[in-house]
Task: inverse folding
C-alpha cells in the first residue's frame, strides 16, 4: 500500500488536518514510527503533493497539512481588500437604487395629486 496515496486520500476526505493527526494516522494504519511518518510528510511537501499551513492564531501556533498551496500573505491581503471594496460598492449601489425608487414613488404621488 502506498503511504503517500493514503495520505492524499485522507486529506481529500477530511480536508486540512493537523500534522500531528496525520502522523498518528500513519503510525496506526501503516505501523510506522513517528519519525518515519514525518519523513514521508516532508518528502511529500518537497514533491509539492501537500503543503504546510501554519495556523498562527492558535496558541501555540499549529501546523496543518493541506492539499492546496496556501496563498502568500500579500495575495490574501489584496484579495480581502478587493472583496471589501466590492462589498462597499454593492452597498453603495443598493443605497442609490433605494433612493431612486423612493424618489420615483414621490414623483408618481405628486403627479396623481
Result:
Amino acid at each position: 500500500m502506498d503511504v503517500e496515496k493514503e495520505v492524499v486520500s485522507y486529506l481529500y476526505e477530511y480536508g486540512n488536518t493537523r500534522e500531528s493527526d496525520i502522523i498518528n494516522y500513519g503510525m496506526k494504519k501503516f505501523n510506522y514510527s513517528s519519525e518515519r511518518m514525518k519523513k514521508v510528510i516532508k518528502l511529500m511537501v518537497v514533491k509539492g503533493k501537500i503543503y504546510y499551513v501554519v495556523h498562527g492564531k492558535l496558541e501555540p501556533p499549529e501546523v496543518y497539512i493541506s492539499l492546496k498551496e496556501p496563498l502568500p500573505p500579500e495575495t490574501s491581503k489584496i484579495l480581502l481588500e478587493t472583496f471589501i471594496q466590492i462589498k462597499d460598492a454593492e452597498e453603495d449601489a443598493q443605497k442609490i437604487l433605494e433612493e431612486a425608487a423612493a424618489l420615483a414613488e414621490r414623483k408618481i404621488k405628486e403627479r396623481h395629486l
In short: Strands lie at 17-18, 51-55, 62-66. The chain has four helices and three strands.
